[in-house]
């Protein structure tokens, strides 16, 4: 066993013990066990500063230290343990039933708000929409995994949100915090629970989409392999395999997004039969984005969005949004500085061609050529897999 898994295991053991003593009112022993748990966690954090779950462990350390202080103070007993370590209590108590896979709030983004991304939209239709509508047309089954990758700020997260709105399906978003939120239960069990819940819903007849945004952060290959992380990744792979079993004709899909596809290992990538790049916006898409973001702004008559669009080759969707915001900010600042803003009828001056071109020339694209090449290279490498 590696040092890391050992520390992790020890920390879990002490924390479980601490909660047990805490519940039975043995304040001294509880405080001592919390202290040991904190020691192990601190060593883990120090030894593996890049470990995925450190943020979570740092929070644990703070919680346990706070609890220790209370246990040692005079009125420690007055404050119920539930308020501090509510999930440890549940986890080590008898109620293990609760379902972790609460569907997250559906985001409110519409398909039409996502400009361009033709390939990605096509893939979503083919992988999810068509099989849901007419499963009878897919006698050989259909893909369950879709990996969206591409440079930052090009609409991957936005697109996934739109899928949730547009497809009448249950949408479950996984992030490291909700997977690790019950660490005494171990992350792999949480993964199993999420998939288990999703499977039940799907078998009952309702399509389910599990979305993992920034998947590299929880399932990427890291230099420091710590036990919990490896176990969670394996569980995940196992769940993905389960989806492919023959005779599974319910609708459970896994959509993952990343801007660091090279951090994912091939075992993971292989399980996403459909991999689609969300590229930098082309001319038509950029024009659409300018029209979208300028729709709420007043433009001077000399503004020519076509020539503006021509100036922004290589800029991402979020760069274009920023540009429109900066220009907007400028005219609003002027309104305030002129002292006219107090008059509620006053309006900022229209946005000028000069303002837009100047803002563009002051702002470099956030994605470099080299980065774009990396995405193409990566895609080529995994196309045939
Ligand atoms: N194709 C697009 N259509 C409409 N808006 C876009 C598009 N691409 C980017 N944007 C704008 O940029 C913002 C950031 O996009 P989003 O968060 O979806 O990027 P991302 O590809 O998920 O980036 P990252 O890899 O950094 O997570 C969006 O909220 C939206 O305002
Ligand atoms: Mg994103």
Give a short overview:
The chain is 55% helix and 7% strand. The protein is an alpha/beta fold and 385 residues long. The protein folds into 3 domains: 3-92, Methane Monooxygenase Hydroxylase, Chain G, domain 1; 111-280 and 374-383, 3-Layer(aba) Sandwich (Rossmann fold); 283-366, Helicase, Ruva Protein, domain 3.
Describe this structure in words.
With 385 residues, this protein is an alpha/beta fold. The protein has 3 domains: 3-92, Methane Monooxygenase Hydroxylase, Chain G, domain 1 (Up-down Bundle), CATH 1.20.58.80; 111-280 and 374-383, P-loop containing nucleotide triphosphate hydrolases (Rossmann fold); 283-366, Orthogonal Bundle (Helicase, Ruva Protein, domain 3). Helix content is 55%, strand content 7%. The chain contains 16 helices and 5 strands. Helix 1 (3-24) runs antiparallel to helix 2 (27-47) and helix 8 (187-203) runs parallel beside helix 10. Adenosine-5'-triphosphate is lined by residues 114-117, 152-158, 259, 278, 281, 289, 317-318, 321.
């Amino acid at each position: 066993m590696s040092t890391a898994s050992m520390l992790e295991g020890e920390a879990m053991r002490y924390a479980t013990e601490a909660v047990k003593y805490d519940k039975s009112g043995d304040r001294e022993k509880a405080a001592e066990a919390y202290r040991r748990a904190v020691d192990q966690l601190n060593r883990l954090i120090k030894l593996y500063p890049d470990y995925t779950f450190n943020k979570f462990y740092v929070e644990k350390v703070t919680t346990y230290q706070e609890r220790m202080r209370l246990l040692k103070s005079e009125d420690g007993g007055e404050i119920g343990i539930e308020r501090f370590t509510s999930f440890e209590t549940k986890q080590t108590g008898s109620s293990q039933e609760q379902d972790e896979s609460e569907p997250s709030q559906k985001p409110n983004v519409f398909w039409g708000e996502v400009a361009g991304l033709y390939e990605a939209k096509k893939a979503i239709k083919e992988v999810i929409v068509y099989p849901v509508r007419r499963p009878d047309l897919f006698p050989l089954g259909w893909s369950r995994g879709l990996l969206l990758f591409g440079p930052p700020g090009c609409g991957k997260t936005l697109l996934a949100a739109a899928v949730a709105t547009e497809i009448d399906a249950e949408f479950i978003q996984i992030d490291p915090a909700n997977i690790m939120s019950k660490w005494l239960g171990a992350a792999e069990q949480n993964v199993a629970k999420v998939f288990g819940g999703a499977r039940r819903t799907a078998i009952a007849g309702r399509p389910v989409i599990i979305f993992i945004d920034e998947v590299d952060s929880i399932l990427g290959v890291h230099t420091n392999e710590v036990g919990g992380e490896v176990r969670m990744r394996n569980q995940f792979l196992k769940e993905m395999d389960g989806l492919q079993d023959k005779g599974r004709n319910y609708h459970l899909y896994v959509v993952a997004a990343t801007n660091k596809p090279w951090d994912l290992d091939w075992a993971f990538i292989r399980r996403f039969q459909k991999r689609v790049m969300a590229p930098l916006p082309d001319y038509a898409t950029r024009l659409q984005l300018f029209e979208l973001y300028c729709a709420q702004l007043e433009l001077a008559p000399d503004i020519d969005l076509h020539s503006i669009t021509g100036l922004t080759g290589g800029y991402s969707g979020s760069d274009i949004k920023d540009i429109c915001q900066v220009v907007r900010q400028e005219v609003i600042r002027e309104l305030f500085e002129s002292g006219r803003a107090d008059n509620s009828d006053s309006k900022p001056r229209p946005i000028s061609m000069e303002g837009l071109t100047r803002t563009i020339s002051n702002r470099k694209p956030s994605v470099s050529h080299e980065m774009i090449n990396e995405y193409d290279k990566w895609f080529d490498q995994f196309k045939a897999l």
